[in-house]
Amino acid sequence: MGILEGFWIRNFKSLKQVGLGICFPKFVYIDDAQVLPYHLNTVTLLTGNNGTGKSSAIDVFSFISDCYRHGVDFACLKRGGYDAIYSQGGKGSLAFGFHYRQKDEAEAVTYALSIVCAKNKFPFIESELLAYQRGKESVPVFFLQNGVRSIRYLAPDERIGNSELTKIEFTDYKNLGLAALESHPRFPVLASLRNFFENRVLSDFTPDPARGLDLSLPRRHESQRGMNLSGLIGYVLKRYGAEEKTFFQRIASSLPNVETILIDSTQTEKPRLSFKMQGIEQPIPITHLSEGTIRLLAYTILLEENDPAPLIILEEPENGLDWLHRANLIDRIHRTFENPQNSQLILATHHSDFADSLHPSQVWVFEKNQEGFTVVERASDAFVLQEMLENNQPPDSNWFSKLFGTR
Question: How far apart, in whole angstroms, are the C-alpha atoms of residue 277 and residue 257?
Answer without folding.
Answer: 6
